Amino acid sequence: MSYIPRLKKEYKNNIISRLIKEFSYDNVMQVPKLEKIVISKGVGAAVNDKKLIDHALNEVTDISGQKAIATMSKKDVASFKLRKGMPVGVKVTLRGERMYEFLDRFVTTALPRVRDFNGVKNTGFDGRGNYNLGVTEQIIFPEINIDKINKISGMDITFVTSANTDSEAMQLLSELGLPFKKKKLDNEKPVEAKPIAEKTPEVEAVVEEAPEVEAVVEEASEVEAVVEEAPDVEEAPEVEETEENNKEN
After folding, report:
1. How far apart are CA 58 and CA 43, in angstroms?
2. Cα gap 56→136, rounded to integer Å
3. Which of 144, 153, 139 is nearest to 44 (CA)?
4. Domain map of the chain by residue range?
5. pLDDT at residue 227 above 60?
6. How does DSSP assign 176-203, residue by residue?
């Protein structure tokens, strides 16, 4: 018995029946399927250093499990010192069992290694049922040895399906295991802005209480004025003189 990849077996046994129920297909041949996966990587710096193409070829070959090929430039660009026919990138096209094996490794092993991963974007569809995904670092793949890489770089992964619409392609890829981000609801309101708005009146109340302190200062100045007026009362000596005159008489 020949080997059958896990996702291919899952597609035939369960995913086809769920898609027929979801989109009400009349025939099994109408069910969309994954046709090929293309991994491409641009190496613009290879114009000056041709060894970078060899590094990129080895990396993409290790990731995909299939020999990658170099892509050549189609025209001359004098400002970039580029001539027609020079290698400027790397690509590989996966079909059949290798395609399902790569998708299985990508979903179960590579994506969980992405830093702060919240799901893949659902805006990469081209309107014809194909999905494009960008990877910023090649070190998320366990096949890459981080000690032997020349430079951290990314790549583009294209999933080509036979679906006619983006909704069918998205449902197919999500059934195969791609974790798409959930769309935010329009009714959701920001929660962080409310506490800031509630605290501002307290600051105003403190500012309004400041005049009371000024009133207390004014009262203190009035008390000082009363204390200064007290020394004016000096009539006691006149009373003593009158008493001495009465004794003499």
Report:
1. 13
2. 14
3. 153
4. 6-176, 193-248
5. no
6. HT--BPPPPPTT---STHHHHHHHHHHH
Distance CA 111, CA 176 (A): 14
Cβ neighbour number for residue 152 with a 10 Å cutoff: 11
Closest CA to 89 of 131, 47, 128, 147: 47
* Residues in contact with 32: Cβ distance below 8 Å, sequence separation at least 6, in sequence order: 19, 129, 161, 162, 163, 164, 168, 169, 172
pLDDT in tens, 127-183: 888 999 998 888 899 888 888 888 888 899 999 999 999 999 999 999 998 899 876
pLDDT digits (tens, 9 = 90+) for 95-130: 999 999 999 999 999 998 888 888 888 888 988 889
* The two three-digit tokens of residue 155, written as one number: 């790549």
- CATH 3.30.1440.10 is the classification of domain 6-176: yes
